[in-house]
């Protein structure tokens, strides 16, 4: 499903947030018709002519190295992004405290919606590994509605799913104990991997435990302690960042708050 080889990047100057900065990226022509993520990004039933025209709506792809920012907080909003491969975190940087991670986005998901309301991005998006996004200039959306209404409706569906997912995450953070938060987080990751055709119980954690803690409102020590407890109880098997959920039923009970450790 994802790109198997890490793409090469090159140096290019770009205007960001109204000022010239130097950013490492490669922009290449997107070829939607032959993309592995076609079934995820596009609705079924598009005819050949419609598929051929997709390149004009998603004109470029952008490749980022690990640690590279897709956009910065306060940067002018002009596009939304579909993650073609890789993994991202959205974050609110803080000079005094640790950065606040607000979400993780993976292959097949949408980035950039935080800038729609104000016209400026409200957070920073950072690649957690070599990643690639398909860029859609937001000015194309209204034109897309009249030319390809099925695709426009599907794009709205993807954005709606992102909003619903974020609302569910906020509910978890507000109501669950620390063990339940981590259990729910791992199960949610597995569910998202499953959507792409991967195993929901075996995957690699692209984020650090510090980043998981920031997202869940937990300290690094608490996250590490709960991981160790889950492993001791036979719920998960963790080898560095390779994780296997060995007892998904029991982990689901903890996520639901039924079985507190």
In short:
The protein has nine helices and 14 strands. With 261 residues, the protein is of the alpha+beta class.
Report what the structure shows:
With about 260 residues, the protein is α+β, with helices and mostly antiparallel strands. It folds into two domains: about 10-165, Sandwich (Jelly Rolls); about 175-255, Arc Repressor Mutant, subunit A (Orthogonal Bundle). It has nine helices and 14 strands. The strands form four sheets. The chain has a five-stranded antiparallel beta sheet with strand order 3-4-11-6-9. Strands 5-10-7-8 form a four-stranded antiparallel beta sheet. A three-stranded antiparallel beta sheet has the order 12-14-13. Helix 4 packs across helix 5 (about 150-175) and helix 7 (about 210-215) crosses helix 8. GO terms for molecular function: DNA binding; DNA-binding transcription factor activity. Pfam families: cNMP_binding, HTH_Crp_2. This is Transcriptional regulator.
């Amino acid at each position: 499903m994802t790109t198997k080889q890490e793409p090469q990047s090159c140096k290019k100057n770009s205007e960001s947030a109204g000022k010239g900065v130097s950013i490492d990226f490669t922009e290449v022509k997107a070829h939607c018709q032959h993309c592995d993520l076609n079934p995820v990004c596009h609705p079924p039933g598009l005819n050949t002519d419609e598929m051929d025209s997709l390149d004009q709506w998603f004109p470029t792809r952008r490749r980022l190295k690990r640690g590279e920012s897709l956009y910065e907080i306060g940067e002018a909003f002009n596009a939304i992004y579909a993650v073609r491969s890789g993994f991202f975190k959205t974050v609110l940087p803080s000079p005094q405290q640790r950065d606040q991670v607000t979400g993780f986005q993976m292959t097949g998901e949408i980035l950039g919606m935080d800038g729609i309301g104000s016209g400026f991005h409200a957070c920073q998006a950072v690649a957690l590994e070599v990643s690639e996004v398909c860029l859609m200039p937001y000015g194309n959306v209204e034109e897309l509605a009249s030319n390809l209404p099925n695709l426009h409706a599907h794009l709205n569906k993807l954005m709606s799913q992102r909003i619903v997912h974020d609302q569910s995450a906020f509910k978890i953070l507000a109501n669950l104990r620390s063990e339940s938060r981590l259990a729910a987080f791992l199960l949610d990751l597995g569910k998202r991997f499953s959507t792409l055709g991967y195993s929901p119980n075996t995957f690699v954690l692209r984020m650090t435990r510090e980043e998981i803690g920031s997202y869940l409102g937990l300290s690094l020590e608490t996250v590490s302690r709960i991981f160790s407890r889950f492993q001791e109880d036979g719920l998960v098997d963790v080898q560095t960042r390779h994780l296997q959920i060995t007892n998904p039923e029991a982990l689901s009970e903890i996520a639901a708050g039924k079985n507190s450790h």
